[in-house]
C-alpha cells in the first residue's frame, strides 16, 4: 500500500510562504496515471481540496487558491511539495497529501500548520 508522509514547519508567520513536502513510499510519483494531491482541513471546517500534480508533471489547482499555490516535485527523491504564498490565519489547517489514480486513494496522516505571528 502507498505510504505518504507530509512534513514541514508547524508554525508560519502571516504574509510568509508555507512549504510542505510529501514523501512517498511503496509507489513512484511518475507512474502512469498516478495523481498526487494536497488537501487541507481548517479547524471546525470540512475538507478543502488544494490541487494536484499528475504523473506527467501537470498541475491543477483549486480556483479559490490559484495564484497563491504551487505544487512541484522532486522525482529523484519521490517527493512532491506544496507552496502557499502570502498566508493568513485563515490558512491554519491540518494539511494532508494523498494519492489517486493508479494507486487508489491513500492519505498520509496530515500535518498541522498554524499561521500566527
Shape: globular
Radius of gyration, in angstroms, nearest whole number: 13 Å
Tally of contiguous helical segments: 0
State the order of secondary-structure elements, H for helix, E for strand. EEEEEEEEEEE
Structural class label: mainly beta
Q: What is the residue-mean pLDDT, rounded to a whole number?
A: 96
Question: Could you tell me how far the N terminus lies from the C terminus, measured between alpha carbons in angstroms?
Answer: 39 Å
Question: How would you describe the oligomerization state of the chains in this entry?
Answer: single chain
- Unreliable residue runs: none
Share of helix, binned: under 10%
| Largest pleated sheet | 7 strands, mixed
The count of strands amounts to: 11
Estimate what percentage of residues fall within beta strands. Answer: over 45%
Describe the structure in your own words.
The strands form 2 sheets. Strands 2, 4, 5, 6, 9, 10 and 11 form a 7-stranded mixed β-sheet that branches. The protein has 117 residues and is an all-beta fold. Helix content is 0%, strand content 52%. Strand 5 (48-54) and strand 6 (59-61) form a beta hairpin. It has strands at 3-7, 11-12, 18-25, 34-41, 48-54, 59-61, 69-74, 79-84, 93-101, 106-107, 111-115.
Amino acid at each position: 500500500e502507498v505510504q505518504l508522509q507530509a512534513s514541514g514547519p508547524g508554525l508560519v508567520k502571516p504574509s510568509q510562504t508555507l512549504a510542505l513536502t510529501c514523501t512517498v513510499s511503496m509507489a513512484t510519483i511518475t507512474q502512469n496515471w498516478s495523481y498526487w494531491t494536497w488537501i487541507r482541513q481548517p479547524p471546525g471546517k470540512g475538507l478543502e481540496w488544494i490541487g494536484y500534480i499528475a504523473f506527467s508533471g501537470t498541475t491543477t489547482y483549486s480556483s479559490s487558491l490559484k495564484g497563491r499555490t504551487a505544487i512541484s516535485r522532486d522525482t529523484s527523491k519521490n517527493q512532491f511539495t506544496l507552496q502557499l504564498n502570502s498566508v493568513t490565519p485563515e490558512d491554519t489547517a491540518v494539511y494532508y497529501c494523498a494519492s489517486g489514480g493508479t494507486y487508489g486513494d491513500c492519505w498520509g496522516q496530515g500535518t498541522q500548520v498554524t499561521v500566527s505571528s
